[in-house]
Amino acid sequence: MNKQNKTILASVIAVILSNGLLVTTSDAQSAGSDKQASATEQKADTDKAVALPSVTVTSRRVEEQAQDVPLPVTVFSAATIDNKGLQNVQDISRFTPGFTFHESFGRVLDRPVIRGQVNILGEPNASFFIDGVFVEGNISGYDLSDVERVEVIRGPQSALFGRRTFSGAVNFITKLPGNKPSGSASVQFGNKGQKQARFSYSAPLADTLSFRVNAYRDQRDGLYHNTVSAKDDLGGQATTSFGGSLFWNPNNSFSAVLRANYLHDQDQAAGFYRYGLADANCGGTATGGVYAYFAPIYTGRPYQCGKIKVPDQLAINTDSFHLAGYGAGVNSSSVRANLALNYYFQNGWQLSSTSAYNSVDGYLGVDQDYSGVRGFGGAFETFSSQPSHDFSQEFRLASDQGKPLHGLVGVYYYSQGNGYGYKGDLTGFNLTPGLPGNSLAPVVTTAVTPNATIRNVAVFGLLEYQFNDHWKASAELRRGQDKIGATGVDNELLVISGVPTALSQAYNSQSTFTSTLPRFTVSYKVHDGLNFYALAAKGNKPGGFNASIEDARMTPASRASLIAQGSATFKEETAWTTELGMKSMWLDNRLRLNVDVFNINWTNQQLTTNGLVTWLNGQSSTNSYISNIGKSRIRGLEFESEYLISREWLMNFTYSHLDAKIIDNIDPDYLNYIGTNNAKGKYLPAVPGDTASLGVTYQGVLANGWGLFGNADAEFEGSRYGDPTNVNWTGSATTFNFRLGIEPVKNLRISAYVNNAFDNHTGVAIMRNIDPTVLIAYPNLVTGSGYSVNYARSAMVTAPLPRMFGLRAEYRF
Q: What is the pTM (predicted TM-score) of this model?
């Protein structure tokens, strides 16, 4: 931290401390200052009772108390989000046991991992929802300031939430418009060019109609130095969002909510580092020989083993994109709208309808060899854009939840498609403009036609019976059908004999997946504040197609070989979860303790395998394909607690332990590193064995009547392996975050914060890649004779966020 930055933080702390020391509630009241903040009033109210507040959730699609729901659900209320200064879904994951979320590729390809059920390519195993509506696309930039609460539900939620909730669901519930005028505005500034502004306002339009509007702007400069461009042009992000809602409640029997939101992300290239062949320390060494006149012979396929560190400086070809007139990074926008209607019958039943439409239009420019080397003369420097849209409709009918026998039934329809787009790469693009005899080669884009559709239709229901004051049991079921299509023409441009040649490949793939997904639960209530439950649930994720197998640049022989290997399609994957849990309140409801133990049997696991393909110009490349080559078993323990120490002090603690072992995962590439083609007994990649968080929050008053608030948080995440061979890993990481603030007048809050205070530099994720600089030859271990010709294996590591600090001011009115 430089001298200027230290001075800023020291000045803020000095201002806080110079205006009074901490005192007890009675001392603050005796001061009798007319400037006492709202914090003093809140403390007077809590003299009546000191207890953790109860929280209402909709994790089973009806309103219930969180501690009574026989499910592992972690809830973040608006107050918790505000008091801890949580900004995004990454912050939510830090305080949820069994949930990790990292921007492994920047703000694209979101990969939430719940209970170790990780995926590398394809659709995520957990899904995000906003007000119960499935969110397609990325949610990293979604702002939490206008959220009423966030519910993280762990384990299969397929019975009630539907497709792609294989390992869990995260539901963001937004704030409803109020019947009284209220609002807030805030600004934030910090190092690395941090700038943030938020605004929200709610007011009535009529006796039964009210509205809410919100706006958000957040940005930061580049975080990492790029040796290729000689600039800090990696890791910068900017988000603009605005939205609104209308709430109509004409009587006690009917309500309607219309919501709409626009979100725009514009990001620099993410911060990666790819280790090259020269950095290989395992797998094979050079023999000095040459195979087939061009490929140096190695004793095996070299790789990087051990702990993979993140260098201080990174190297990504951002300049080539800018010179070609294309951006390096992300430029995407989304529009989301939904209409929720509720009718309440006099007998306690409720009929609900939710209609939603979402559209996403995004551009991505990425250097896919993640290095300063222009792999294949620029073929790895790709860009693409294709819009997508989806529509969903759900009807639910819920019975009176106060009756011993109660439940709900619903129907669901979902349709997703995409539109016309474009793609291309910078093959042959000259990076030396202005030199005699040189000119910039034109970059030719190819059209992408609408080529993918998803239709999902499902019926679902829940039936629960309360046998007596202690026992109840429930059964949930969803019967669904996915119709997935991939139809279109792949248009590509390939340089053949020095001539850019347009190529096309028509394809038509259709498949239907039908699923029956149950969940059975039994719960026992010992007394108020102590509940036990047991459940068994099945989750699934639909199968699909590997679109890259239809690449028009591929030779017919390569395509036929991949099809023969079964790489054209992949099947549905399934998992059965069995679980025991306890939810409890102690010490007059000042201490909450929740514990879960579970076992997951995961079959037909969709993992990645690699295949060497030959292009029509004679060049070779390695592509990744999704394949059902995995079977795993995950056992785990989750613990979360919250302790209201006093009216001023609140402590929270979470811990998760996972034993995530591979039962079966065959890939010939493993032979070179672990001596077998089966990773049986190895640990699942990208999954930490242990995670924990500890936080302390303070809300008090200074001697002069100013409010004082703050929090200190620590997070531990165990080491994660880079791939199923377990030969390289990230190392464990511990990060600390601090926040301290004052409330000098009612409703005005000023705070200073520092995240990753001690600048932990552990890599976020390791991805298996290749070094495209040279083809090598190494013994063919599959056949036992001859040589394989391919590129050296290469480990790619994602850089973590550095220390970030700044000042924030917020006014509520």
A: 0.89
